[in-house]
Amino acid sequence: MVHGWASTAAGVLTLPSGRVVRGRGLERDGPLPEFGLYLLGDEPPPMPWPSQWLRWPDFGLPSDRETARDALVDVWERAAQQRVEIACSGGGGRTGTALACLAVLDGVQRDKAVAYVRQHYDPRLWKHHGSAGT
Length: 134
Known about the structure:
By secondary structure, this protein is α/β, with parallel strands linked by helices. The protein is 31% helix and 19% strand. It has one domain: Alpha-Beta Complex (Protein-Tyrosine Phosphatase, Chain A). It has helices at residues 65-78, 93-105, 113-120, 123-129, and strands spanning 12-14, 20-25, 35-40, 51-55, 84-88.
């Protein structure tokens, strides 16, 4: 276990620095995070833990790129000490894209970030949803 997430648990992505982040679809339950970033077109219901909503419509881009960058940097920094998660409706496209951004923040080359996420983030998901970032 690293920072409370079992490194082999579904949806847990271990970044090269050792930081861990859980990605998930909101319909999937699991252990509670200490902080969550929610990537949705509409505001999610209140969470019983600290969280941030990033307006990010399905099949689109974040509504505010600067806010998105700041939110992802915050999650990356928190992941060094806290149990953090990133979630969207299904846990694939928007979540996978955000995880690829975290991988870049963590030192993965930009052109290899999506492949890194495909290899290390819940391979069962990619059998059903296709590729990260789509």
